[in-house]
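Fig. S4 source data, part A: sequence.
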Amino acid sequence: MTTEPVERVPLSPYRRTLLLLGIAALFLLTGVLRLALVAPQGVHPWHLGLLVGAWSLAWGGAAILLHRLRPQADLGFLPPVALLTGWGLVLLVRLAPPFLVRQTLWLLVGTAGMVGMATWRGASRLLRRYRYTLLTFGLLLLAATLLLGVNPSGYGARLWLGCCGLYFQPSELLKALLIVYLASYLADRRSEPRDGRLWAAVIAPILLMVGLALILVAWQEDLGAALLFYLTFLAMLYLAWGRWRYVAAGLVLFVPLFAAGARLSDRVALRIDIWLHPWAEGQADRAYQLLQSLYALADGRLLGQGLGEGLPHLIPAVHTDFVYAALVEEFGLAGAVALIALLAYLVQRGLRLAQRTPSPFESLLSGGIAALIAVQSFVIIGGDTRLLPLTGVTLPFLSYGGSSLVTTLLLVGLWINISTPHPRPLSMT
């Protein structure tokens, strides 16, 4: 007696998304259970309950709403982002429990904004139409920090605007608005420029970005934002024309900027000196953070010390600038590879979306978001490992910081919006 072969029915994209979200939830619960057993100092049961509840509400609600409101959208962006944010919350509970309530609130706000951005009809058309208005607004907010800026910790660079106990970093919003502007600008000039138009189409924007980066370094002493903005711009320049010589020219122009920053800003000069000579005699106090980060990376070995078993608290500001070092210490090289693989998968998915999107503006917008996440991850991981000077930018989705988390989730919402079939935005030319 013969039996007919059973035909396997592939999972629908939505069911596949739910399955992957379930895996992310399992990872989160494993981390929470580990912390409950180890019981690090300052971690209470209500912290763990809040973590699980807020994460489940944020990503369960986002998946259901997006499936109902945008059934044709690519929801494959959700699982890696959900896993990364859950991993970040687990690390935050481990490193700085008092900040958990605020970060979970930002997560809920960010996922709500992500859903709103993903379901906003005509988003691309309006963003492209008001590109100058949006960029001007972002620059005005950044300029406001020069007069009204504060630092929540009470010392250091005043890069935040604050009111009623809430703080917002305008440079985080500006990086998103800058991608929108550059995507629109480069889409209008995507055809290969002739020799007579080379200055206006390529060199002039590079000099403009050099000037903006120099202002950030000199006035705000924000090396991280300057490096992030400029490298993202060069990446988008390559996406638009695919010519390495434009990128090489931009990198050459960045050299005098780097030198000027070291001369004009004592803070930038100190970070460069720490980067070059962390082991120098008499440098121990100033390079303490970087040295402890290097020790933590060495202690991680292959599989790490185990969640809750390392000594990441020896690194000052570990929950903001040095989350990667803490992760490697307790999850080891295996955790570092997993983290980089997740970020790389997310970037690759954004680039694939850029390839298949027919609209030049949306293609560059999707590619620009991918470039931003890649550059930001490279800059902060490079700083923690002494590959680059310390910059103070956040590790996407993992570091503590509401401005960064909300802005990055809004950009993920733009990815989902672009992946939904819709009419192409009209050209501005």
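Fig. S4 source data, part B ends here. The first strand starts at residue 161 and ends at 163.
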